[in-house]
Amino acid sequence: MATIGKITTASSGSAAIDYAYGRNKMPAATKDWLKQQGVDPATVEQLQNRAVVMSGLNVDPEYAKTQMKATRMAFSTRGKQTTRVIQSFPTIDLDPADPHDWQTANQLGLELAKQAFPDYQVAVYTQLDGKGHKLHNHIIVNMPNIRTGEKYHEHQSWQRLSRINDEISQEHNLSIIDRNTRAPERRTMAEWQLNAKNEYVWKDDLRRRIDKAILESSKNSYKDFSEHLTQSGIIIHDRGKNFSYEFLDADKKHRRARGKTLGADYEKETILNELERQNRQPATELPRLIEPNRQIEQRKRAVESREPISESRKRTTAKSGQSVDSLTIAIGRTRQTARTVANNLNKQNSRKQRFRERITSFTKRFREIGHQINQFIQRLDCYNRTVNNFQQRLKADQQAKQQAFQSFQQRFEADQKVQKQHELEQQQLNKSFPIEEDHGIER
C-alpha cells in the first residue's frame, strides 16, 4: 500500500534537493545490506548517490537545483521555495532489494507528479536507505506555476494526494488502505518502538485511564465519566465535535491529546454512544456484545494490558492520579506563559507591520525614482535623435557645398582652357595678318 507520509515546505529549495539527491552520499551500510540481500555486487558498486533512481517533470533532475532557482527568479517568488512530498512503499508491494522495483517506485512517483502537479517543476528522487530499507520517493515541487507564476498554495492537500496515490496504486495492482474504516487505536511509529522495548508510553497510560473510567462509570453518564477521569488525574475538554484530554504522565510531564489522535474508541461520539448504550441496559442484564472494537471485555483487556510494568511506575502513576491541583497550577502557568508569548508576538507583529510599511514606502519611492529615470532616458533619446538629425543635415549640406565647389572649379578650369585657346588662336591670326605700325609720318 503506497502511502503519502508527509507534506512539508522548505525555505531552501537547494537544500531540499541536495538531501533528496544525496550526490555521492550513498551510505556504506546500505550497500552492505544490498549485497547481503543478494543484489549483484556490480550493480551495488555503481550506486554513488542516495537516490538510486531519479526523474523529473518539466525539469532535469540532474540540474533541478539551478533550473528551479532560475524559475523562481524569473517570477520573483519569495518565501517558501519548494514543497516536499514523501511517498512510501511497503515491502509486500515493492522489494527494496530488487533494482527493477526501484524503477517502478520512481515511475509511480512521476505519475503522481504528473496528475497532482502538471504545471509545476517536479523532481522525483527514489531512496531505499533509512530504517527498514523501505523504498520511498522524495517528490520536490518548485513553488511557482510555470504558466502563471503563482505560488503553489495547497499545502494541506494530503487527502487529495492520497486519493490520487490510491488510484495509481489500484491501476498497478498494489495494495491500498481502506480509509473508510477507523482504527480503534491510532499509534505512531514512536509508540510502537517504545512498546517493543517495553518502555513507558504516555498515550497508553492515558488510554488505560480512560478505559477504566468508562468501566467504573456506575451512572453511565457523561458527568459521572468526567468525574472518574478527574479522579484519575485527567481533565477532559468538550470541543464541539471532539474530546481532548490532558494530564500529568508518570514522569510529571504535562500531556495533551485529542480523542481522534488516540483512536476511534476515544472520540466523543463513540464514548457518548457507549455510555448511552450501557445506561439503557437493566441492572441485572449482563452487558451485551456490541461492535468488536467496543466490547466491555476488550476494554478490560486493554486496561490490564496497559498496567504499568514496575511497582515504581504504579506508585508514580497513583501519585499522578492525585495531582489534579498540580495540573491546574501547571495549566495556569501554561496559560500565563501563552499570554506572555501572545503579547510578545503582538509586539513582534507590530514591528513587522512597521517594517513592512517602511518597505512599502521605500518601494514606492524607488518606483518613483525609476519612473523619473525612465523619463530622463526618454528625453535623452529624443535629444540624441535631434542631434543625429542635425548631424545628418550638416553632413548633407557639406556634401552639397563640396559638390557645388567641385562643379564651379570644373567650370572655371574649362573657362580658362577656352580663354587660352582663344588667345592662341588670336596670336596665330596676328601672325598671319600683321598690322602696320603707324609712325605718324604725313604724306
From TrEMBL:
InterPro entries: Endonuclease_MobA/VirD2 (IPR005094). It holds the Pfam family Relaxase. Residues 47-174 form the MobA/VirD2-like nuclease domain. Residues 297-314, 416-425, 434-443 have a biased composition (Basic and acidic residues). Residues 297-325, 416-443 are annotated as: Disordered. The keyword Transferase does not apply. Keywords: Plasmid. This is Relaxase superfamily protein. It comes from Lactiplantibacillus plantarum (Lactobacillus plantarum). The gene is mobA.
